[in-house]
Amino acid sequence: MNKTILLDNRPQGKPSHSDFKFVENDKPSPKDGEVLLKTCYVSVDPYLRGRMIDQKSYIEPFELNKPLSSGIIAEVVESKIDDFSKGDYVSAMLDWKEYQVSDGQNLQKVDPDQAPLSTYLGVLGMTGLTAYFGLTDIGKPKEGETVVVSGAAGAVGTVVGQIAKIKGCRVVGIAGTDEKIDMIKSKFGFDEAVNYKTTSDMKKAIAEAAPDGVDVYFDNVGGPITDAVMANINRHGRVVACGAISTYNATETPTGPRLETTLIKKSVLMQGFTVGNYAEKFKEGVQQLASWMQSGDLTYTETMVEGFDNIPQAFIDLFDGKNEGKMVVKV
Amino acid sequence: MNKTILLDNRPQGKPSHSDFKFVENDKPSPKDGEVLLKTCYVSVDPYLRGRMIDQKSYIEPFELNKPLSSGIIAEVVESKIDDFSKGDYVSAMLDWKEYQVSDGQNLQKVDPDQAPLSTYLGVLGMTGLTAYFGLTDIGKPKEGETVVVSGAAGAVGTVVGQIAKIKGCRVVGIAGTDEKIDMIKSKFGFDEAVNYKTTSDMKKAIAEAAPDGVDVYFDNVGGPITDAVMANINRHGRVVACGAISTYNATETPTGPRLETTLIKKSVLMQGFTVGNYAEKFKEGVQQLASWMQSGDLTYTETMVEGFDNIPQAFIDLFDGKNEGKMVVKV
Q1: Which residues of A are less than 8 Å from B255 in CB distance?
Q2: Which residue in A53, A130, B255, B304 is deepest, having the highest Cβ count within 10 Å?
Q3: B101 and B157, same domain (yes or no)
Q4: Confidence band (pLDDT; 50, 70, 90) for A247?
């Protein structure tokens, strides 16, 4: 049999198990020109929450009663395409199914001997590329500048912090548990870290952690944490608007202090982006990230959940910050 | 005698006459290496409101009981500097005084035969340069794109709209009276204009005036007007954060819908700036603006108030939108 996870309801607020539906079908058989893929690792990402809303965006919304999908590493278990052999591993946007067929389009072969398979969803995949292009192309950190990262212990944040260190910056991370705070300092080399859950005056805490002010803010969370960082932004600061997980489950339009005056008075740039904007440069980005990994300048952590049935729970846990680094489900 | 206008109180909310104090002193005498300047035209600008707050910014705040200052065109009435002669006209940041001495530093000679003197404060001065650099360097309008301008009938807005037309864009202006709406369409060539004071659903009105969405938003006002434009922003849109006059008199931090998600989903850039960022390119900018004026592609309007004593009132009137184009006081 072959399990599939469908979107059963569009979540109201935080996603719950009742928004997902498991169905079972026969395992499909590949026709000529198709491969049969077995799902190995499934990426769960905050941005998927946005696709659950029925609203035009940079990517089509998920349809009700249709399979959800995300970045997946799969094994070719049967091939009727010349370019693929049984035993190959591929990375692609695929459905949340145990088995599925593919015409081979958009499948990217990955090498399990080069790096652990799950890293092709994380540090060597969309996550790493998001950190790399957002920070270098928008944030443009210069040696000696201060870079602040929110969601610092997450999949993107841990990579951003390390790249900022490679660029010679002072790096301040914001995260929500003492374990995460310890981890980003000891394992990922952040200079300072602020636990937003135990800090009452975030504006002051950022000012203390970034005594020369904030030159680059890589924002994964939005909301009041962002307000506190923006209160410390320097003249000609750059804000990389990558994610806003604090607002993804909002049921009403989130409000906050208006930013216009800060942007004007300090000549600040804010730029939103999605990694797809850089599709033409993915190869260059992966090469750079892999090279930093080989030199030991870039490392990673991941939160690995086991079992296809646990995909919804792993996704829900993102919104409680239960992951350190990349959240991956091993099927 | 020689009148000077001092900042008597830091305004709470909208500025009022009691925030200003007139004092009289003797007319000063220039020493060797100085010129005596007679004020001819005084620029009043919304950004001066920001300088009245005791708060660090890109420019020093005004001090209490000290003269206010702004862009001024003055006549040299006595010169003890070789480079300046009696009868020369100069443009500079000068005090709100009828007469003052200067060591000649930062005085820029202007030619009354080339263009009316007041235009060196407006379309050929900081105002025109603000429009030019903000639109071309940040907004980067491309032929066929839609540019929306708020504060469209103001000093900066009228120039922005015309440059956007020169660049081959569809131009939509937002202003607050029917006279202004008529003016920007008939005199300045805007394709569409929306009166925000008589329009109940601004989001819908912008959508109708910009049926292909908004590629570039040149923002002079901030606040709810900006929210309505942002609801119509296109993917890869650029927001030029130039002014936020709707919030300058706020006594509490203005709040509004958070922008992060829009910025991210649509890969939108927002960039604040002040014209001083482009100081090295002022000459190039003035040449371009003057050339467009000569070719007839760029025209201007101004609201001319007479009398030194009316400088505070002219400034206050900015916040009621009483000006069309540049607000200048002729002394």
Answers
A1: 255-258
A2: A130
A3: no
A4: confident
